[in-house]
């Protein structure tokens, strides 16, 4: 079912410093920061040859990553995003397997403009998983 | 400097259950378990089209991931591995930038038989980073 690893998301308190770490210290190609107001994040894309790292900083008053950054002031890996061909077929399969889909179980439009679901870390080896319809 | 994301390592207490999650629930292609005694882990490779997930279970009495699994009984993302062309050039660049290389700073032979270094999470957005000479 799962296809490519679309990205690894790393949440940080200071996006400028994180960008300098990836662009300067690690010598990776990085984008400019993009505000994604409706998802409560500012994001910098680190472009690797085979996938992306997304550096996320909380944006606005009700960012969904604010609590994570408060608990992890040095930052941390927030989630992994796997691509799927059909988000509804994926959702139905996961529910049939007894896995917990977060929220109301209905796909939402994610930060890339494509339908996504988030899966409960406790059911997926302690890692928050995003599924994105490719 | 950094190239491909070689793998994401997820450490778990129960490799059989984790394998079932990836092979069964998520429908990914997985390998048989491999014991890597000298690195204190048993590993199952999850083969995605563009990279790998490595599911790691502690092996033996002094596994380097035993403490992590004790602190994270549901499992968790343990590290990210980026490829570099020249591990010594990478090491020298990182030291010149003031980043902390773990251990004595000399590359060791990693679980894939290639030279690796580990970098301090506090200097890399809270994520433990492995660099592997490709």
Provide the CATH top-level class of chain A. Alpha Beta
Mean of residue pLDDT values of chain A: 96
Strand content of chain A: 35-45%
The CATH superfamily title of chain A: 2,3-Dihydroxybiphenyl 1,2-Dioxygenase, domain 1
The oligomerization state is homodimer
Number of separate domains of chain A: 1
Unreliable residue stretches of chain A: none
Q: Tell me, what's the shape of chain A?
A: globular
Rounded to an integer in angstroms, the radius of gyration calculated over CA atoms of chain A is: 15 Å
Overall SS class of chain A: alpha+beta
The number of distinct β-strands of chain A equals 9
- Which two chains form the greatest contact, residue counts included? A-B, 40 and 40 residues
In the CATH hierarchy, the architecture of chain A is Roll
